[in-house]
Structures are given as structure tokens and as C-alpha cells.
Amino acid sequence: MANEKTPVETLSEEAAAAELAFLAAELARHDELYHGKDQPEITDADYDRLKRRNEAIEARFPALVRDDSPSRRVGAAPLATFAPITHARPMLSLDNTFSDEDVRDFVASVYRFLGQMPDDSIAFTAEPKIDGLSMSLRYENGRLVTAATRGDGTTGENVTANILTIGEIPNRLPAGAPVVAEVRGEVYMAKSDFLALNERMAAEGRQTYVNPRNTAAGSLRQLDAAVTASRKLRFFAYAWGEMSEMPADTQSGMIETLKSWGFPVNPMTKRLTKVDDIIGHYREIGLARPDLDYDIDGVVYKVDRLDLQQRLGFRSRSPRWATAHKFPAEQAFTTVEKIDIQVGRTGALTPVARLTPVTVGGVVVTNATLHNADYIEGIGNSGERIREDGHDIRIGDTVIVQRAGDVIPQVLDVVMEKRPADAVPYEFPKTCPVCGSHAVREKNEKTGRLDSVTRCTGGFVCRAQAVEHLKHFVSRNAFDIEGLGAKQIDFFFEAEDEALRIRTAPDIFTLRRRQEASELTKLENIDGFGKVSVGKLFNAIDERRRIALHRFIYALGIRHVGETNAKLLARGYGTYEAFEKAMKEAESLSGEAWTDLNNIEGIGEVVARAIVEFFKEPRNVEVVSRLLEEVTPEAAEMPAASDSPVAGKTVVFTGSLEKMTRDEAKAMAERLGAKVAGSVSKKTDLVVAGPGAGSKLDKAREFGVEVIDEDQWFERIGPQ
User: Fold this and answer.
1) What is the pLDDT averaged over residues 499-520?
2) How many angstroms separate the CA atoms of 550 and 533, rounded?
3) Which of 502, 467, 257 is nearest to 345 (CA)?
4) How far from the centroid of its chain's Cα atoms is residue 486's Cα?
5) How far is 672 from 346, CA to CA, in rounded Å?
6) Helix, strand, coil percentages for the chain (3-state, nearest 5)
7) Are residues 107 and 192 in the same domain?
């Protein structure tokens, strides 16, 4: 117990240790009362007096400073940078739903995957979706050891020092908690705290902030934890990562456990079984939304039973057992001042409306996408009229602008009553505004319809495409070269001196050699660089000379090949050499290589054709060839389940499965390290055939592929 009448300088070591233990527990209790329950028992002055007493004792007895000391929440020396932390379990994103029908489809898909009738027997939790920053807190032996942002889902940033400043997050878990426990949730800034911060900033004559979410994210990424501490961040816990043992067997049970450990959990979370009740709770939360002291952008639904979550498993980037039901987009009225055309790395000409600035959902919007020529004219993807009376969008129009979450704002509709008399239809350009090359709309060979996108035919002749391709190449999920951002790419691309110029990806990796050989322009002598920053840039480039195969494939910028497809291709072919060889063999869009490409689960004909076309273009092959002289794509890592008897094998499921659904079978096989194909080829290792198997079974027999039934499949893979 604290005895403030006893001078610190007269305390014995034993008395000091006892008092520090008391102060740590007492201040943690007051943090919980203040932050978690809004029921403070003491004044701010009394709270500060206890903290000063704690600090004075620690100053006299530095060897007695506790891991859970209140002083460890603030005041660490500023960091130079944030170290990466690899998540023990990935932090995946959620799929989104936007309508009641979408929610019904989600619930139905859960029953369908599990092979059950939709009889309201499966419970779901429904909780507000906090508009904040995802965070993973790792505790070992009850002590908070690291805190990491979501990052790319696999690797986040170490922000432990800053997390320690958040009073709502416990430094220690109570006795009985698992040895390893990763608690996940959302860091956010309350609306009231945000307004108070902006009032303070304005009073000091400083720049105010745009919205609570961005302010929370920026506050959490301060190199000086003391700055973070001054911003008053908060936390809601709602999930977990690695757990050495599970303290509950349901989602709702885990939430109660997190609450018992001292974490704030959202009081509006409910457990429901009927779809109508789930949608009804969504409406209740939506009605309460304006009065909440924190921003939410939807409601998250999760299957409650954890064993069912495990059976449902994951898609490539999201769980099958959860979805986010987003609130309707926020809207506002403004005026189209002009329409500009942006050219992307694939040559797509995208019209952008430049708007009279307007605030939508707390963010000032000045630009909005107009998608394509058809959208401007009021025509949908299937040729239907998409606005009332089928009207177009013109410069000078008063329009309704819509914004949902982080989605790029779009022009939703036109207020025809306010259209200026002199407004004329917008004429979409027939040439590229950057390079002057002919701009065309390709025809779909199957449907005979024109593509909705207009594309520049200039290829790498077009500066915009070349620059955007380079920006994509160095982006976070591609080569991720620190210090080589959009501005630097623009600078190097426009450089007149050959020793500085970067026009294609291989040029990045020859920059150091060209600079060392140059007797003219030295990068370190150019404003904005300097010797230290140039050295860091060269080192960052060299660190990427070895790169994961899926990142390399993604970085190539092949049309339709995003992160997910790049991972599918990397896993399907294993090495870059095998991938490139197969793509060249598939040039005729027929034969075994073409069939194998289409057989990769998730790669359809449209994607397959785009990949093959990329490798048919000599300029692309030449650039990739030069790139491979500088970098080495590493062989893809195979799934961890290497001891599984089906790991690395290509499996095809056909016929009616009686003990598991087709989706469940595919998920199970992939979890065990197998590759699941959609059709049988000579490279298929195993066919699992149920009743009614037809042509695939015949083909398996023709190729001499091993065929087993469902019972034999479970015997082979063993207990799951």
C-alpha cells in the first residue's frame, strides 16, 4: 500500500518493492475505471500524484522497476524506425456484403459448405465493425511482449512502445491465461477525443486533422511514444491469433474471456441464430451509429462455434465463416468542374471528375472516378441504362458523390434540374492524352461486345504506362523497395543523364553500378538525396535481389494477375523457370501446358489468356530476361503440412461427395498441402471419386491416375 507520508529517500528496498507492486496494481485499476467503465474514483490530480510517487521510487531503486510499471506506458526514447514482426497466424481481411440479400447468401453458404439444411441451428455473433487500425498484441507468460499492426496480413510493424501508452490495454494478463496468447482488435480514437484534439491544435495555430481513423493510425506510428500518449487512443478486443490453449470453444465465449482479462469489448455484440434477427440487429446498430462515440462502418458476422470455423476454413484472403455487412455509402452534392483522363500501367484510360471540394463522411473529396466512357454516358456493363432517364454526366453538372469507407469516391447521379444550359456531352478521347497513341476498346471474342475499358496501344512507348508499371513494381506487395516511391520513380524516369535514368525494372538494379562508373551527375549531389540517403537506397535495392516467387510474378504487372493469382501461380509451378517455360509452351492456347494452367484452381481462361499473351510479347520477355540477370526469384514455399501423405500432390474431386461438401473437400486438401485441380490431366496424382463420377473418372482411368473413394480418402489422410 502507498504511504505517501514516508519520504522516498527513507524507504528500504523491501518497502519500495512492496509499494511499487501496490502502485502498479492501483494505477491499472484506475485506468480500467477511467477508460473502460467511465467511472473514475479519483481526480486527475490524485492520479498524477500516484504516478509521480511511482516514478520517484523507481528513480531511487532502478533495479526494482517492474514489467507492468505505469512508467513503461510513456516516455520511451523515440525510435528510428519500426521493425517488422511476422504474425504467428496471418491477419486476414473480411469479405464485404452490402445488402440483406447478401447476408442471406452468406448464411446460406455456411450451411451449404457444411452440408446442412438451413434450420437456424448455427449461431452467429454480430458486432459493430470499428473504423480503426487493426492490432495484434502478443502475451507470453502473461506479459505483453510485442504489438504489431496488420501490415500486409503476414508482416506488420512493431509498435509495442506506442501500444504501452494506451491505458485500456493491459500490460499483464491474469493468472490462468494461456502461456502464449495473441489478442487482436482495433485501435481507435473516440469522436470526443478527436474533437478535443482538433480544438487544441487550432488554438495552437497548428494544422487540424481530417478524421479520427487517420489520426489514430498516424498517432500509433509516431516514432516518439510520448506523442502517441498525448493523443488518447482506445482499444476494442474482438479476436485472437496464436493461443497455446483455447480458453473457450465459441466466438462469444472468447469475447467473454477477453473481457475477463481486462480488455474492452463492444457491448453491442450479440449471439443470434435467425437471419432476420441478424439483419434486425444490423438495423439497430445503424440507428445507434450517430450517437456512438466511435466511428463504425458496418457490422461483422461470425460463426459462433470455433469447430465450425475450423471446418469452414479460409479462402485465399478471407475466412469463409465471417463477413462484414457494410453500411450504405455516405453521399453529398457538388459540381463537376472538369474531367481528366488518367492512364494506368495496363494502358487503361480512366476518366476522373475534378470536383468542387465537398465533405463526405468527414473527408474532403475533390476527385471521383467516372470508371469508363460508358459510365459517363449512363450505360452499364450489360448495355442497360444505369441512371433515371439514362442521362449522362457533363462538365458543369451538379452531382451526387458517394463514398463508402476507403473506397474511391464515385459520381452516383446527376441533379438534372441544375444542369447548365450550355453543358455539352463529354467526348471521350480516341488517342492517349500522354503519348498520342491510338486508344481502342477491344472486342470480346466470345460475346462480340466491346470492352468497357478504353486502352492506349502505346505499350512501353507510353510514358504513363511505363511509369505506372515501375510504381507497381516497387509497391508494397511487389518488390517493396524502401526509398523508391512514386516521386522518386518520376524523378529517375525523367532524368536526362543515363547514369540516373530508370525506364524499366532492370534499370533499378543497375543504378548503383552506373552511378559508380559515372564521372558526371552523382545522385548524392542532387537536392533531396544526400550521401546517407543514397547509401540507404542502394542497400534497399540490393536487399531485394532475392525475392519470393509470388511477389516477383505480381511485380511483373501482368493484367488480371493480382496478389491472390500470383500466389496461386507460384504454388502451382514452384519455380520461376517452370512457370515461364510452361507459359511459352501454352502460346497456342492448347496442349498440355495450356490445360495445366487452366486447371489451377482459381485461374480461369481470362486470366490464363492474359498471362500467355504477356509472354508472347517480345518486349516483355526481353525486360524479364534482363531483370533475371539482376534478381533471383526464390522457389515457392510449400505448405507446412509436409508430413501429410497428400502434400505436394495434385488432387481432383469428382462425383457426389457424401461425407463432406465439395468446397470443404478442397479446403481440407489444400490445408494438407495438396494442389486441387478442376480437371484431370497426366499430371494429376489422385482422383477422389464419389457416386455419379463421369468424364473425369474416365479420363483418370485413361491416364492411369490412381482413383479412390471418399472413405479411402479419409483413411489416407488420417484423423483431422
Assistant:
1) 91
2) 29
3) 467
4) 20
5) 37
6) 40, 20, 40
7) yes
Are 710 and 688 in contact by the 8 Å Cβ rule? The answer is yes
At 518, the pLDDT band (50, 70, 90 cuts) reads confident
The predicted model scores a pTM of 0.52
Find out whether 352 and 367 touch, Cβ atoms under 8 Å. Answer: yes
| Amino acid type, 424 | V
The residues with which 336 forms a beta bridge, in sequence order, are 355
Residue 464's nearest CA partner among 439, 498, 427, 443 is 439
The answer to whether the beta carbons of residues 255 and 302 sit under 8 Å apart is: no
> Residue type at 639?
P
Q: Give 482's contacts (C-beta < 8 A, 6+ positions apart).
A: 536, 537, 540
Q: Which domain holds residue 339?
A: 330-418
Number of domains in the chain: 6
Q: Are residues 192 and 274 in the same domain?
A: yes
From CA 716, how far away is CA 719, in angstroms rounded?
A: 9
Are residues 399 and 412 in contact, defined by beta-carbon separation less than 8 angstroms?
yes
Judgement on whether residues 129 and 166 belong to the same structural domain of the protein:
yes
Domain end residue (candidates: 498, 514, 544): 544
Q: Choose, from 129, 302, 326, 696, the residue flagged as catalytic.
A: 129
The C-alpha atoms of residue 153 and residue 483 are separated, in whole angstroms, by: 22
> Both 149 and 216 in a single domain?
yes
pLDDT at 77 over 50: no
Q: Which residues neighbour 38 within 8 Å (Cβ) at sequence distance 6 or greater?
A: none
Task: Put the strands of the sheet holding 675-676 in their side by side order.
Answer: 675-676, 650-654, 686-689, 706-708
627 closest CA partner among 536, 516, 544: 544
DSSP line for 509-554: HHHHHHHHH-SS--GGGSTT--HHHHHHHHHHHHTTSEEEHHHHHH
CA 506 vs. chain centroid, Å, equals 28
Is 616 annotated as catalytic? no
pLDDT, tens digit, for every residue of 383-430? Answer: 778 876 778 999 999 998 887 555 678 888 898 989 999 999 999 999
Judge if 504 and 615 occupy the same domain: no
Distance CA 429, CA 439 (A): 8
Task: Give the amino acid at 451.
Answer: D
Both 174 and 195 in a single domain?
A: yes
